[in-house]
Amino acid sequence: MLRLENLLVEGASLEPTLLERIRRNVEKFSKMVEEEQADVNAWWNDLNSDFVRLNQNYQDYIRGLNSVRAEEMMHTKEFMVFKDRLIEYLRSFIKGLQRNVGVIEEYLRLLDEKTKKQVFEKVTAYQFAIPRIDIELSKKQIEENVIGRFESIYNWFVATDGHENEAAKLFDATNEIIRRITRYAAELSEKNSLGANRKEEYKKVAELFMKCEDVDEAHKMAAMVFGIERPVHISGDYDRVTDSMNQGVYEEEPICIELKPRIRAYRMKTKRSSIVESTEKKMEIRKKMLQQQKEEMNRIRLLEKDGVIEFSELPVIEPRIREILLKWISDAMESVDFSSRTDDGRTYQLEKTSGGETCVVHCEDGNFTMPKVPLNIIAEWQSIECIDHEIYIVENPSVFAAICRDKSCMCMNGQPRLASILILDLLAKSNVKIYYSGDFDPEGLLIAQKLRQYYKGDFFYWHMEIEDYRNGISKEVISDKRKKILDRIKDEELLPVANLMKEYGVAGYQENILDKFKEIKCTQV
């Protein structure tokens, strides 16, 4: 029994290799969706086994260092022997924490619920299929156990609800132990120095002093024993190889500082040289810069979708493209109306309607989180002309595709963006009549009402009457929360439809009355 207890104590350690193995297994999480159940279960057991070992080992090891016995030992002279080795061991573990914990936390944060659910189902299905004689477990119990284990791993590495994660606590605890060990070592060294008899040392120094042949040699002797009388300290901004407090001054590389005379008449010597003609070289550099700028603008244009750059939907981008986009955001934030101009003369504006949402932008050299602010590229249009001075606007892209032929038409595609609002301003400037048709749901009616209130010209509803709603009814039930939106409908032409929608409690969509829209053929603006 005593031997088993000793084995448990001997097993306590802080091994950074466990963190590396956990990181590699977490990185495989998304790949497990495509693996067989047996392979997924083996991977899951390895991940949990490493996590349990890490959690148990670090608790045992830290508890040992904080014990009464360890505290007493740190006050003894024998502790000085392995002090440096212990500090180096702890620092090695801290480096492992810094290298792996951040990566593990990022991977766990970015895991989507669908992937986690598929992996949990495979592990649950495999463990449920294992024949057991002594106990009978239900599938729900196994699933709760699997999800609980994952939440333990998640909470260990990821801070949630303002609470510090376990990895950060371990990091602080290890640093505190290093500080305590260093403090005790310094106290021991000071005690040893205070208790030493320096009589023999003083005798030796006096003998050497008496052997000095002249005053100059005596001064040198005094400087060696007592130090420089008036030392000169030179401070500077330079890079140190290490920040270790145990590193001595003479163990670091020296730095060279050039001193200049402190007189007003001093001027640095300059070499005379002839003026070199560099026009061709400048033109070549300018040509290359313009070509590079053009290529960068072309790559950014590929990221635009209908004149909008959605940062949440961007693919993996280059560091240079990221730098340009962030500069655009910075320039726009300094403007009153959140707009600015690109290098190729185009106007853009930030659309600050995200309500505090964030998104992750993936780059070739890493990922970063930023506010979800779409960036609208605004073409410098002066006016818009439509056939017969009228335009048909629909909300649904499929309806737009069906009617686009002989008349001017446009697709809003849901909530109107800044580019759509600017087009409405230009249409009003050209005295264009608008015939608008949207979906028969609370949001669609509210969009139609707002557009009519905004537009400064003639605005007519098109296929948005009670008969159209009845023909376009779908099976989608409108929730009570969404029904409250209908209370905001005040337009006299939309009120009958809104009241009927409250009564029926279901939405209607333009696709269901597509044949009615085909009566008028339009052409895209």
Please report the distance between the alpha carbons of the first and last residues: 86 Å
Weakly predicted, low-confidence segments: 4-10, 521-525
Report helical residue fraction.
40-55%
Describe the largest sheet. Answer: 5 strands, parallel
Quote the beta fraction.
5-15%
Largest sheet strand order: 10-9-7-8-13
What's the total helix number?
Answer: 19
Radius of gyration: 37 Å
- Which structural class best describes the helix and strand composition? alpha/beta
Number of strands: 13
Give the SSE layout.
Elements (H helix, E strand, L loop, with lengths): L1 H9 L5 H12 L9 H29 L2 H6 L5 H32 L2 H17 L9 H19 L8 H30 L3 H12 L4 H12 L52 H23 L6 E2 L9 H15 L5 E3 L5 E4 L7 E6 L2 E6 L3 E4 L11 E5 L2 H7 E8 L6 H12 L3 E5 L4 H13 L4 E3 L4 H6 L1 E5 L2 H4 L11 H10 L1 E3 L5 H4 L4 E3 L1
Parallel strand pairs: 7-8, 7-9, 8-13, 9-10
Antiparallel strand pairs: 1-6, 2-3, 3-6, 4-5, 11-12
Helix pairs in contact: 2-3, 2-5, 3-6, 5-8, 6-7
Summarize the entry for a quick read.
With 525 residues, the protein is α/β, with parallel strands linked by helices. Helices cover 52% and strands 11% of the residues. The strands form 4 sheets. A 5-stranded parallel sheet has the order 10-9-7-8-13. The chain has a 4-stranded antiparallel sheet with strand order 1-6-3-2, sandwiched between helices. Strands 4-5 form a two-stranded antiparallel ribbon.
